[in-house]
Structure formats: structure tokens, C-alpha cells
Design goal:
This protein is mostly helical. The protein has helices at 2-34, 45-85, 89-98, 107-118, 123-130, 145-169, 173-181, 186-194, 199-214, 218-223, 231-242, 245-277. The chain is built from twelve helices and no strands. It is globular, with a radius of gyration of 23 Å. The two termini are 32 Å apart.
Length: 278
């Protein structure tokens, strides 16, 4: 037994060392720098400066991340539901082929694509003008918060939809068929029978999406570079323009706390679900 434990520790040592080097050490270093005042002592001066300069950006970041995460969940549920319960073979096949594309596109490429798609004279407006649906003088740019949200939703939806489609595929089809045989519509069956059974998978996907969006720099910088902007841009600006690692790390700690709220919500839901089962 002791020998097995020793070998297990040896085999897991490289993974533990990697986690400690790439995650634990940077986390503690970030906390130390965040609470180190310009004079060298410990305090909350960096946090005070962060809220003084970037309180609007912090609220803007929360708005962008929450709205993008919720819209991603809705879009992913719709796609996964169509793949699972769709009755039009060609539509299901086309959707299955198309929805995964953004998975293989980096955020920086997605941001550049959206710059050309959502601009005032971009592909979207030019297409509407060409079809006669829009007057050339009435076109407007969507390179603002709307473009940022659209980019995040487009990029993250396939990831969550893939998780949900796998979870829905494991559901007993007899449950779905029973609902249909009793006269319920596909939408009602999906909302009342299918969606509740994949809630845990949905929450996992949404928490991962929330954290991912919080960490992206390229999209807010390239799609909507004007004020207000997201905290990742502020952190990069403090370092590249001022070498101010204290405020940058204070903003990072604030982002940790925001992400911890999403993690707390997920853990709270899981604990409540386990108590209900028990």
C-alpha cells in the first residue's frame, strides 16, 4: 500500500510541478504585488487606485461577461436541442457541420474577422445594402459593446453546445418519445424534459465560458478599442505604458474575485442538488 502511494506520488509529480509553476506561483506572486504599495509596504493603495481609475471598466467588464455568458447558454441550448430533437435531416446535418467551426479559430482571428464583418462598411452592412434591406446612408458600425458580445457568443457557443449535445445524446430516448406520444410539442419536451437533465453540464460550460471571457485581451482591444473597455485591456495598458505591476495585479485580483462568484454559484447549485438526491 505504501509502495503504491509512493509510485502514485512519483507519477503525479510532473503534473503537480507544472500546476505549481504555471498557476500556483503566479497566483501568489500576483497577490503579493497587488498588496505591495509603491513605497514597498503592504496595503490596499493599488486597489484604491484601481477603483478610482477603472471602476467604470470593472462594471463594463461584468456586464459584457454576464450578458455574453447568458447568450452563449441560450444559443448553445438551441443548437444542442436542434441536433438532438431535429426532424429535418438536411438541416441537422448542415448545423452539425457548421456550428463547430469557431472552435478552431483563435480569439485574435475571430476579433479580426468581426472587425471586417461588423464595421460600418463591413460585410454585414454591405450584404444588407446589396439585398435592398438597408439604405447605404443608414448603415452603422457595431464595433462597440455589441460587437464584443457578438464575438464572444459566436466563439464560445460551439464549445458549450458540444458539451450539451453529448449530454443530451446520453438521455434515454424513451423519455422524449413518451412526451411526444402524449401530445407535447418538441419545444415543450425540450424545455420540460430534456433541458432539466443537462443543467449540470450547462453550468459547467457556462462557468468555463465566464472564466474564458474574463481572460481575453484581443477581442475588446480589436473590436471596441474605445472607452469603456474590459479589465484585460486596462491591465495590459498599466504594464506596457507605465510599468505599473501593482495596479495591474490589483485588477487581476479583482478579476479573480469576480470569477470566484461564478465558481461559488456552480458549487452551491451542485451541493443543493446533492442534498436533494440524498
Amino acid at each position: 500500500m505504501k509502495q503504491t502511494y509512493t509510485w502514485g506520488l512519483i507519477l503525479s509529480a510532473p503534473a503537480l510541478a507544472l500546476i505549481a509553476t504555471l498557476f500556483v506561483y503566479p497566483l501568489f506572486l500576483s497577490l503579493i504585488l497587488a498588496f505591495t504599495d509603491p513605497g514597498g509596504g503592504f496595503g490596499i493603495a493599488n486597489f484604491q487606485k484601481s477603483f478610482e481609475l477603472y471602476s467604470g471598466d470593472i462594471l463594463y467588464t461584468i456586464f459584457i461577461v454576464v450578458v455574453s455568458t447568458l447568450l452563449t447558454g441560450v444559443a448553445a441550448l438551441a443548437i444542442a436541442g436542434a441536433l438532438t430533437m431535429g426532424e429535418t435531416p438536411w438541416l441537422v446535418a448542415a448545423l452539425r457541420w457548421l456550428y463547430r467551426w469557431p472552435l478552431f479559430i483563435p480569439f485574435i482571428v475571430a476579433a479580426q474577422c468581426m472587425r471586417t464583418f461588423l464595421a460600418k462598411n463591413g460585410l454585414m452592412n454591405n450584404s444588407f445594402v446589396g439585398m435592398g434591406l438597408l439604405d447605404p446612408l443608414s448603415t452603422q458600425s457595431f464595433l462597440d459593446w455589441r460587437g464584443v458580445i457578438a464575438t464572444f457568443v459566436w466563439k464560445q457557443t460551439p464549445f458549450v453546445a458540444l458539451l450539451l449535445a453529448g449530454a443530451m445524446a446520453s438521455i434515454d430516448r424513451a423519455t422524449i418519445e413518451a412526451g411526444r406520444n402524449l401530445g407535447a410539442s418538441r419545444l415543450r419536451v425540450f424545455i420540460e424534459l430534456v433541458a432539466p437533465q443537462v443543467t449540470r453540464t450547462l453550468l459547467v460550460g457556462l462557468v468555463l465560458t465566464f472564466v474564458t471571457i474574463m481572460s481575453v485581451l484581443s477581442v475588446p482591444m480589436m473590436v471596441a478599442g474605445s472607452q469603456p473597455t474590459m479589465m484585460t485591456v486596462d491591465m495590459a495598458f498599466r504594464i506596457t505604458s507605465y510599468g505599473d505591476y501593482g495596479v495591474a495585479n490589483a485588477l487581476g485580483v479583482i478579476s479573480y474575485l469576480i470569477c470566484s462568484v461564478a465558481a461559488w454559484f456552480y458549487l452551491r447549485h451542485n451541493l443543493a442538488e446533492q442534498r436533494g438526491v440524498a
